[in-house]
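User: I'm new to structure prediction. If I give you an amino acid sequence, what do you actually give back? Let's try with this one:
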Amino acid sequence: MNLSSYIFKKLKDKGLKIVDLAIFLNLPQGSVSTWKKRNTDPPVKYISQIALFLDISVEELLAHTSSDQPNDAIFNEYYQKLDAEQTHHVVSLMEDLTNI
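Assistant: Good question. You get back a string of structure tokens that encode the predicted 3D arrangement of the chain. For your 100 residues, that looks like this:
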């Protein structure tokens, strides 16, 4: 299951709709619907907000598991797909999270 499929599964499990997520992310509903229709992952900049909306950890969102142990292989798979700017953003987010 890819990230997009997991997001929409969690929305359904929680009784939430695409429009709810779109409003939370301050995006047009069509933008979020496109992720589902095309089965594409959302931009990295929305990952932490999506996890917050779904009330799950970023790790659970990316690894598609609620395990307390990080799934390094899945995280690394996604991390390696990032460009330099996205990598910097992820590192910044992780640093922010460690300071909470």
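You can read the tokens as a compact description of the fold. Here is one thing that stands out. The helical segments are 3-13, 18-25, 29-38, 47-54, 58-63, 72-80, 84-98.
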